[in-house]
Design brief:
Elements: H1 2-11, H2 14-23, H3 41-55, H4 59-66, H5 75-91, E1 93-95, E2 112-114, H6 120-132, H7 139-145, H8 150-159
Helix pairs in contact: 7-8
């Protein structure tokens, strides 16, 4: 219903409004910039003298240009060289030290990892063994066992601590306990 009313008001007296707009006086265009006279023969001679120093040979600038030496390298060749370096690093792999039994979460079981990397299971195993026996599992030994950087291993041991499960005994004997089956 609203569209019909809007259409009626929009189309009301349409022709008269259009003719009124058409018959209005049009705005005048802005005046154009005054153009100078076309170049004459005398003007072309002046233009030639202005272009002449540009085309003339400048010996001091030419000697300076000869002393410039530009050395460039192909970016594609640099990219290939970096790929070769990363390919060599990826080739250095080590077998797994520790893995979870079975096929957890339906993931493909890993057989080896790049040097300098750890799996989650290996990281937890290394951290928990360091936590239990810090004298036997020093950061140096962990770095050697898992082919890690010593600085990264020290930071790992210092800042990451695996979860500890603590069973708190009940205060009284009358409290119900869940027995292990």
């Amino acid at each position: 219903m609203g569209a019909r009313v809007v259409r009626m008001f929009r189309n009301f007296n349409l022709e008269n409004r259009v003719f009124r707009e058409i018959s209005k006086e049009k705005p005048r265009a802005a005046p154009r910039h005054a153009v100078s006279d076309p170049p004459s023969a005398a003007g072309s001679e002046a233009a030639e003298t202005a272009v002449d120093p540009v085309n003339r040979r400048n010996d001091p600038l030419l000697t300076l240009l000869k002393s410039v030496y530009v050395e460039s390298k192909d970016p594609a060749a640099a990219a290939e060289a970096s790929k070769e370096v990363t390919g060599a690093k990826e080739a250095e792999r080590r077998p797994l030290r520790f893995s979870l039994p079975g096929d957890p979460y339906g993931l493909v079981e890993l057989t080896d990892v790049p040097k300098g990397k750890l799996t989650i299971a290996e990281a937890l195993k290394a951290l928990s063994s360091h936590q239990r026996q810090p004298g036997a599992w020093t950061p140096e030994k962990i770095a050697q066992e898992y082919s890690l950087d010593l600085k990264d291993t020290k930071a790992l041991v210092e800042f990451f601590i695996p979860f500890q499960v603590q069973i708190i005994p009940p205060k009284t004997d009358s409290t119900k306990q869940i027995k292990a089956s």
